[in-house]
Amino acid sequence: MQKFRSKKDWWILGFIIAMTGLLLQLLLTMYAKGNMAQYPVHTFTYVLTIAVLWWPVWNTQYRIEAEQLVITSMFLTWKIPLSAIQKISPSNNSVSSPALSLDRLRIDYQKQGKAKFILISPKDKQAFTLALQQAQQSIS
């Protein structure tokens, strides 16, 4: 099994850091005013929002296993059989996907007879593509 982390664009990290700073400032202001106990729902919401903002940064990954590609982002998981993958090509498509960068790879595959695709952004695209091709060759 090989594991590849997602590449992270500076502007995505900048947004997450800025939002985290804003929420921490709100929490510190509530703490300084002694309002945290009065507004537990607000406190919980701010802390939860910070965790959800950082969750994809911590766990977005692409694993090449014996017979499948496993893509994980937050609580979502995609499992694509290596034999179903038809094409890997570069993409800058900004559609929502388990990728933290616009420097992406488009993976075209078949699922239940239908053509599908998913966009990913491994940190090292060349190593990922090579590992995926080698894994595909080893099962055929």
Keywords:
140 residues; alpha+beta; four-stranded antiparallel beta sheet; three-stranded antiparallel beta sheet; elongated
| Class per helix and strand makeup | alpha+beta
Compute the number of strand runs.
Answer: 7
Order of H and E elements: EHHEEEEEEH
What's the N-to-C terminus distance?
17 Å
* Percentage of residues assigned to helices: 40-55%
Low-confidence runs: none
Share in β-strands: 25-35%
Average pLDDT number: 95
Strand adjacency order, main sheet: 1-2-3-4
Return Rg in Å.
Answer: 19 Å
Number of helical regions: 3
Largest sheet: 4 strands, antiparallel
Helices and strands, with pairings:
Elements: E1 2-5, H1 10-33, H2 40-59, E2 61-64, E3 68-73, E4 76-81, E5 85-91, E6 104-111, E7 114-120, H3 125-139
Antiparallel strand pairs: 1-2, 2-3, 3-4, 5-6, 6-7
Helix pairs in contact: 1-2
Write a structural description:
This protein has 140 residues and is an alpha+beta fold. Helix content is 42%, strand content 30%. It has three helices and seven strands. The chain has helices at residues 10-33, 40-59, 125-139, and strands at residues 2-5, 61-64, 68-73, 76-81, 85-91, 104-111, 114-120. The strands form two sheets. A four-stranded antiparallel sheet has the order 1-2-3-4. It has a three-stranded antiparallel sheet with strand order 5-6-7, with no helix packed on it. The longest helix has 24 residues, at 10-33. It starts with a strand and ends with a helix. The model has no long low-confidence stretch (mean pLDDT 95).
